[in-house]
Specification:
Elements (H helix, E strand, L loop, with lengths): L12 E6 L26 H7 L9 E7 L5 H13 L3 E6 L8 H10 L6 E6 L13 H12 L3 E4 L6 H10 L5 E3 L13 H11 L4 E5 L13 H15 L4 E3 L12 H11 L5 H16 L6
Parallel strand pairs: 1-2, 2-3, 3-4, 4-5, 5-6, 6-7, 7-8
Helix pairs in contact: 5-6, 6-7
Family: Belongs to the metallo-dependent hydrolases superfamily.
Protein name: Amidohydrolase family protein
InterPro entries: Amidohydro-rel, Metal_Hydrolase, Metallo-dep_Lactonases, Rhodanese-like_dom
Length: 298
Amino acid sequence: MTSAPAPTPAPVLIDAHHHLWDLDRRPQPWLDDPGLTSIRRTFTPDDLRSTATRPVAGRHLHGTVAVQCMPEVPETEDLLALAEREPLIEAVVGWADLTSPAIGETLDRLLAGPGGTYLRSLRHLVQGETEPAWLQRPDVERGLAAARDRGLSYDVLVRSHQFDQAIRLAERFPDLPQVLNHAGKPDIAGRDLAKWRDQVRRLAAHEHVVCKLSGLITEADHDNWTTADIRPVWDVLLTSFGPDRLMFGSDWPVANLAGGWNRWAATVDDLLTDCAESEVHALLAGTATAFYRLPARG
């Protein structure tokens, strides 16, 4: 008897990193920056649907992961409730105070509340923390352990000078799935990638860490970047993590500052030209589906 052939993966596209905000419901003070005027308005799932029209490798947007912006539990509650009624959103990366003694109770409440089953990961804007080893604080590690014990993952948002924290986190929490957001924000505009390259390779040595191919165009020259500016970063990520540990993300609507969703999709389409179909599937859907435990497709 011959075994049945393995099912062919469905040709779908997952945007594993985007944001949403309703300024009438919840202010976003970070948008007060004068350089962010063009995105200082409400963005909804319908806005994303109408915007994200460009296919990548022939795949159209199928599902998304909505990611927190504000360090506020109520924003996470809003995103979870939205995911419960919005078919496009398949998972939420939320926020909870990792330093709080009540972190366990907070997470239990979120998971049991409206849309709580969509909570798959937590994120903190470590990029804004000045403490040189914030991720290694005992109270933070206690919070990370609480997330891990509840089956959650962790989205790592650091800048280049904070990579040692991310590497130490990977060492100390080998049983906590982690994903590096925005590839660690390499200095694409300044063309200074040497140290970042070494750091990425060190982090990628930890196999439970994956990486988002996202947020790169806003680290480039917003007005003048080309695919050639992104390719050196792509080459490092592909050789360090491999396609099975990379996932596509748009960072929309922040991406609008440097060309928008469709231009980034076209760039990724170009970068994938020499990849095998299995590699394309991993990067555009498979890695995100596995990491965030999204609905299986076959």
